[in-house]
Amino acid sequence: MNVIVMGCGRVGARVSIILDQHGHHVTVVDTNPEAFRRLGEKFKGDTLIGTGIDEDVLRRAGIESAHVFIAVTNGDNRNIMASQVARTVFEVEHVVVRIYDPVREDTYRRLGLRTVCPTTTISALIIDLINDVLPADEEL
Amino acid sequence: MYIIVVGGGKVGYYLTKTLLVEGHEVLLIERDRHKVEVYGERLGSVVLAGDGAEAAVLSEAGAQRADVVIAVTGEDEDNLVVCQMSKAKFHVPRAIARVNNPKNELLFQRLGIDVTVSQTEHILKLIEQKIPEKSFVHLLNLRHDELTIVEAHVSEGSPVAHKRVANAQFPVHCVIAAIIRGPDPVIALPNTEILPGDELIIVTHSNEEEDLRRMLMES
């Protein structure tokens, strides 16, 4: 399957490496060429310098034949805009977008985007890990 | 009307100022605290510090009772999200986005933004519509005796359209050097018919250039 990953930070690079190892064809897009170093030597996919909110950049990344588009840059708004371009303009089947702001995440999930919110997910995990050692409210 | 402006660059600042003068209730949201202070001193307490894409900030700004939200930051992705959040979460009836990259104008309309304003497109259209010089271009001054060469586009309504060169009432010292018709130059013989769409290359006295312009531009 053809996958485009926008944003080559820790998450973007890791997702790309794993999907590459699973035999998918991955193209990683980032504005900063230095970021591609995170992919390591064994990565067999492609890299492209540019911003994923630009339709021409996405076209060059092969979005017209992409099955999956993943937006994981540090900017919520950039991720939101790029994933809407992928979905609306290029009709990519599976679009996943990371949104740090829980309210924005909630709003765009309701608008039909497949969202991941690290803020709520990680908070819940942490609370879960310490739940058994801390007494609940009413017991205080 | 209650209008929320997001983005305190030059556009946002002057827009807020103008809307206030027109008697609207306006609130300007800007991220940079220093700008907020400066604008606050100049405009009064109509400036709020914060990220206009954040629901908490929009809520504090009273977006739920806003008639219009106008996003004019320098980043298209921010303008898009501000408008979409205003509509989806606060049911603002009208969201207007500034489009910095003209390529994004269509996209924004498809994504539900009511009105897009592209400065680049706007300036281009102004040049095309309001400035007649576009269809009458001064090409160069000849060294000899104050002669100039101009290029004029013949529109359908032009007084010389469908006339033969000999019958077109050009000023006395004008000579049609060539007619560009499509990709080809055509020699302007007295009985050659001038057609709409033609570009006329005309040699004229400098002091008759204005007369020529006026004569060709009237329709």
Short summary:
Chain A has 140 residues and is of the alpha/beta class.
Notes on the protein architecture:
The complex is a heterodimer of chains A (140) and B (219). Chain A has 140 residues and is α/β, with parallel strands linked by helices. Chain A has one domain (2-139): 3-Layer(aba) Sandwich (Rossmann fold), CATH 3.40.50. Chain A is 39% helix and 19% strand. Chain A has helices spanning 10-21, 55-60, 76-89, 102-110, 118-131; strands at residues 2-6, 25-30, 46-49, 68-71, 94-98, 114-116. In chain A, strands 3-2-1-4-5-6 form a six-stranded parallel sheet, with helices on both faces. The longest helix of chain A has 14 residues, at 76-89. The N and C termini of chain A lie far apart (53 Å). The mean pLDDT of chain A is 94. Chain B contains seven helices and eleven strands. In chain B, strand 2 (25-30), helix 2 (33-43) and strand 3 (47-49) form a beta-alpha-beta unit. Chain B folds into two domains: 2-127, 3-Layer(aba) Sandwich (Rossmann fold), CATH 3.40.50.720; 133-217, Regulator of K+ conductance, C-terminal domain (Alpha-Beta Plaits, 2-Layer Sandwich). Chain B has helices spanning 10-21, 33-43, 55-60, 76-90, 104-110, 119-130, 209-217; strands at residues 2-6, 25-30, 47-49, 68-71, 94-99, 115-118, 136-142, 147-153, 175-181, 184-186, 199-205. In chain B, 33% of the residues lie in helices and 27% in strands. A six-stranded parallel sheet of chain B has the order 3-2-1-4-5-6, sandwiched between helices. By secondary structure, chain B is an alpha/beta fold. The chains are: A alpha/beta (140), B alpha/beta (219). The A-B interface holds A 53-56, 75-78, 80-82, 84-85, 88-89, 101, 103-104, 107-108, 110-111 and B 53-56, 75-78, 80-81, 84-85, 88-89, 101, 103, 107, 110-111.
